[in-house]
Design goal:
- This protein is mostly helical.
- It has a single domain, classed as Orthogonal Bundle (Arc Repressor Mutant, subunit A).
- The chain contains five helices and two strands.
- The chain has a two-stranded antiparallel ribbon.
- A hairpin with a 2-residue loop joins strand 1 and strand 2.
- Helix 3 crosses helix 4.
- The relative contact order is 0.15.
């Protein structure tokens, strides 16, 4: 299974603060910059900037409710990210199996 890897997505998700924000949004079913800033050691403005990055790569979508902006994790983009991660994992598993086979062949040739 070959999946195209979205480097922009993984650059955004690679930041530990943004991953923590995604965890909070998933656990709470959504949130605002204000509610997230209460749970994180960063300012509301910093939270808003991080949410902007996640929004640009499609990891969150925004709904306006009066003056508030409610952020929720995009289930479709999350599923896409999981598929990409699974693909990378499968690729590395196959590579490691080939390396193991080569190492075993070398070991057998030295013993024999």
């Amino acid at each position: 299974m070959s999946v195209t890897i979205d480097d922009e997505l993984w650059s955004a998700v690679g930041d530990s603060t943004r991953r923590r924000m995604l965890d909070l949004l998933l656990n709470d079913g959504g949130g605002t910059a204000t509610t997230l800033s209460r749970q994180l050691p960063i300012t509301r403005q910093a939270v808003a900037k991080h949410l902007g990055v996640l929004h640009r790569v499609g990891m969150v979508h925004v709904t306006s409710l009066g003056r508030e902006r409610i952020y929720e994790v995009s289930q479709a983009q999350l599923a896409r990210a999981v598929a990409q991660l699974s693909s990378v994992g499968a690729t590395w598993d196959a590579r490691l199996q080939r390396i193991k086979g080569i190492a075993e062949a070398i070991q057998h040739s030295r013993e024999g």
